[in-house]
Amino acid sequence: MQSSAPPRPAAAPDSPSLSLKQPPAADRVYAHVKQSVLDRRYEGGTLLTEGELAEAVGVSRTPVREALLRLEVEGLIRLYPKKGALVLPVSAQEIADVVETRLLVEEHAARKAVPAPPGLLERLEELLAQQKAQAAAGDLAAAAVTDRCFHAEIVRSGGNEILSRLYDQLRDRQLRMGVAVLHSHPDRVAKTLTEHEEILRALRAGDAEAAVDIVHRHIGWFSHLARGEVR
Fold it and tell me: What is the pTM of this model?
């Protein structure tokens, strides 16, 4: 009786057939430009051309156009036919709008976070330690991300999914503003860390009104920046 053929060996874990596919070209361009705008590699006022972006990401110009259209809708760039895409600077009005929305959401969230569950306090402690390390290393882009995460944790702790989604819509603007502010006002880094410590202390003490007052002062500083009162 003829023996059956031996089973074919299973594909190795690093086999090309099992490797993860790259995201679509337009998504790669979108992610590249967006991250570069948020961390200030492409600063406000920079003119980006399709050719330069296509070369930087290693794609054709067609997906570049698609990605730029998405970024224009999000308000990060403005397209100029036959010229390129202008990275829009953070305006005083944008700062004022973000601050107003943040105050409405975060003051409510700070009040609702009391009494603070142990898990929230532990997470805020971790984020504060992480932000201190990033600031000490001079990684302001990472510190801005952690800053945003600190506040988002308090908002999410309230359990209101609609409010959390509203707050998440501010993410890109918060990050962009945060990096810009930390670069132009380096003394603000230490002040931010101190105010985060104060917020955490108030939440740990169960003092809702103190937490709200600190959040108001912490975020309200940006209003002065928007009005040109901070030098």
Answer: 0.74
Which regions in the chain score pLDDT beneath 50?
Answer: 1-19, 230-231
Query: What is the C-alpha separation between 179 and 152, in angstroms, rounded?
Result: 17
The beta-carbon contacts of 17-26 under 8 Å, at least 24 apart in sequence, are 24/63, 25/57, 25/59, 25/60, 25/63, 26/63, 26/64, 26/66, 26/67, 26/70
For strand 84-87 and strand 77-80, is the pairing parallel, antiparallel, or unpaired?
antiparallel
* CB count in 10 Å sphere of residue 20: 5
Instruction: Tell me if 88 sits within 8 A of 129, measured CB to CB.
Output: no
Secondary structure in 3-state letters for 67-128? HHHHHHHCCCEEEECCCEEEECCCCHHHHHHHHHHHHHHHHHHHHHCCCCCHHHHHHHHHHH
